[in-house]
């Protein structure tokens, strides 16, 4: 699993060109077709769905464009800008068009009425489930700049749980590496609506999630569906270090909503391993939006 970066970075502005409607329609403009110029920000972006410099999307990232008369049209990033991947869409009248967009793009064959189903278990982790959504941006032939910025910027639709493992008494990560950890108590199966940005859980029971560490890594992260936690099902974490299993129960988030992982928030748990056990701090929450951070100590 890749090492986590915890610092925030400036919003990345992305430029792409897009026109609205299909090639067969004529443009109501004496000067010919007018392409809508799209710009986009990621709201309070952090180093999750970003390039290695932490500044924005990477080349080959693909988004899907929707409007009243456009469905799931892919635009792919190349040489720092987004452009059509196959179909180019043109304005066919002078009316103002309203657009939405989502990331990452899914083929029509993967969708059912615009909805994609995913499992966020250990095999489903990665930027392909860091769903982003933007809506409300408008444009027309007379005002062709369409801006997914400000209140219309791309926003994270999932929750992010991050773990920072720290050395305590009798623990030296330079001598013995972390192997894996298992988190229990979260529901992992649900859907993302590419036309509305809404998420929903579809299986109402939790499944364990196993996270494997790259050699030398001391951090890990999980994309999860936003969800309210069941008081009867604790968040149990087990970590294997130097052949020994450490266990602890993690505190539930207390903000922005108590006992809930909220959409667009990152929850950081600082976990200290020692030969006396695990210590877990209260989770820190940052709107990715910051979420909450909890410190956890694990003792043998």
Structural description of this entry:
The structure is a single chain. By secondary structure, this protein is an all-beta fold. The protein contains no helices and 23 strands. It has a 9-stranded mixed β-sheet with strand order 9-2-1-5-4-3-6-8-10, with no helix packed on it. The protein is elongated. The N terminus and C terminus are likely disordered.
How do the helices and strands line up, and which of them pair or pack?
Layout: E1 14-18, E2 36-40, E3 62-67, E4 70-78, E5 81-84, E6 97-103, E7 115-119, E8 132-139, E9 145-148, E10 155-156, E11 159-167, E12 178-184, E13 189-193, E14 199-201, E15 209-212, E16 219-224, E17 227-228, E18 235-241, E19 244-250, E20 260-261, E21 266-274, E22 277-286, E23 290-298
Parallel strand pairs: 1-5, 2-9, 11-21, 21-23
Antiparallel strand pairs: 1-2, 3-4, 3-6, 4-5, 6-8, 7-13, 8-10, 11-16, 12-15, 12-18, 13-14, 17-20, 18-19, 21-22, 22-23
Based on Cα principal axes, name the global outline: elongated
Structural class: mainly beta
| Average pLDDT level | 79
Largest sheet: 9 strands, mixed
Query: Rg to the nearest angstrom?
Result: 22 Å
- Individual helix count: 0
Low-confidence stretches: 1-30, 50-55, 290-300
Helix content: under 10%
> In oligomeric terms, what are we looking at?
single chain
End-to-end gap:
25 Å
How many beta-strand runs? 23
Which strand-content bin applies to the residues? Answer: over 45%
Strand order of the largest sheet: 9-2-1-5-4-3-6-8-10
- Element string (H = helix, E = strand): EEEEEEEEEEEEEEEEEEEEEEE
């Amino acid at each position: 699993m890749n090492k986590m970066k915890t610092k925030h970075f400036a919003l990345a502005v992305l430029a792409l060109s897009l026109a609205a409607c299909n090639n067969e329609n004529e443009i109501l403009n004496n000067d010919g077709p007018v392409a809508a110029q799209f710009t986009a920000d990621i709201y309070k972006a952090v180093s999750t769905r970003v390039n290695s410099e932490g500044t924005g999307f990477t080349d080959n990232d693909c988004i899907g464009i929707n409007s009243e008369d456009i469905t799931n049209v892919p635009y792919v990033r190349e040489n720092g800008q987004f452009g059509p991947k196959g179909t180019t869409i043109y304005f066919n009248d002078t009316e103002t068009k309203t657009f939405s967009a989502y990331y990452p793009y899914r083929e029509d064959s993967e969708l059912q009425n615009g909805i994609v189903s995913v499992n966020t278990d250990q095999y489903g982790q990665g930027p392909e489930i860091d769903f982003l959504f933007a809506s409300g941006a408008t444009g027309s032939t007379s005002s062709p700049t369409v801006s997914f910025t400000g209140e219309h910027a791309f926003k994270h639709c999932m929750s992010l749980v991050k773990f920072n493992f720290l050395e305590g008494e009798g623990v030296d990560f330079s001598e013995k590496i972390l192997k894996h950890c298992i988190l229990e108590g979260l529901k992992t199966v649900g859907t993302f609506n590419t036309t509305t940005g809404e998420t929903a859980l579809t299986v109402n029971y939790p499944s364990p999630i196993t996270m494997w560490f790259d050699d030398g890594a001391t951090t890990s992260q999980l994309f999860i569906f936003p969800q309210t936690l069941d008081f009867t099902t604790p968040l149990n974490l087990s970590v294997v270090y130097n052949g020994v299993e450490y266990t602890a129960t993690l505190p539930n988030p207390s903000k922005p909503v108590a006992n809930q992982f909220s959409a667009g928030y990152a929850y950081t748990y600082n976990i200290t391993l020692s030969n006396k056990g695990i210590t877990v701090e209260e989770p820190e929450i940052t709107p990715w939006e910051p979420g909450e951070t909890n410190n956890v100590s694990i003792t043998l």
